[in-house]
């Protein structure tokens, strides 16, 4: 099957079945690949295009207008072609824009104490999924796209063998043009996808 066909959505699915279908298709796409850049690129594309094909989100007023990842800056590969004198100074804790689908987005999000703000930073720091019905009412909301009305953000949580608790390494972020565009069914489906993505990659 061509890779693009994984975003074809069968007719008649309810939302629970839709997210199960996307999870299954993503598992096939990620099989045999461990690079996180490659896998997050395919994950964001599959989720975004699957939502555009799903009747509940296909309408223009309810469209998901952004889907992608922000990743801990420490996980980005270090430049290999710069000279030592050009080595950048250490930066405070932050998330950098990763693979996504949608309009251009904020390049970085601060997550260090005293600087963290916005839905992505809070989901990352709290290590909890945040479902925001109205982004304009959310304290510290960062407006990457003024058309966005609601948002859901799932942390990417990695359990290392030598650590007792899970470590947040990034977030999966979705924006919608409608108020209350996402619900708990979406949150649960995306949490399963977030876990699948983390487990499928070498970090």
UniProtKB/TrEMBL annotation:
InterPro entries: FRMsr_CS, GAF-like_dom_sf, Phosphatase_reg/MetRdx. It comes from the Eukaryota. SUPFAM superfamilies: GAF domain-like. GO terms for molecular function: L-methionine-(R)-S-oxide reductase activity. One of its GO terms (cellular component) is cytosol. PROSITE patterns: UPF0067. This is GAF domain nucleotide-binding protein. It comes from Lentinus brumalis.
């Amino acid at each position: 099957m061509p890779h693009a066909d994984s975003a074809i959505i069968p007719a008649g699915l309810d939302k629970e079945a839709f997210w199960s279908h996307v999870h299954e298709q993503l598992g096939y796409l990620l099989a045999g690949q461990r690079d996180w850049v490659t896998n997050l690129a395919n994950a964001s594309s599959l989720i975004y295009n699957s939502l555009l094909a799903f009747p509940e989100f296909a309408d223009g007023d309810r469209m998901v207008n952004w889907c992608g990842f922000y990743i801990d800056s420490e996980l980005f590969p270090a430049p290999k072609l710069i000279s030592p004198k050009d080595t950048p100074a250490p930066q405070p804790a932050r998330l950098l824009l990763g693979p996504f689908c949608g309009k251009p987005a904020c390049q970085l999000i601060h997550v260090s104490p005293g600087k963290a703000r916005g839905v992505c930073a809070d989901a990352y720091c709290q290590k909890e999924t945040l479902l925001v019905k109205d982004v304009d009412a959310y304290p510290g909301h960062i407006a990457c796209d003024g058309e966005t009305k609601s948002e859901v953000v799932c942390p990417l949580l990695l359990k290392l063998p030598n650590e007792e608790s899970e470590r947040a390494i990034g977030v999966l972020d979705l924006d919608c043009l409608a108020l209350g565009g996402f619900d708990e069914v979406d949150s649960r489906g995306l949490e399963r996808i977030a876990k699948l993505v983390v487990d499928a990659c070498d970090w």
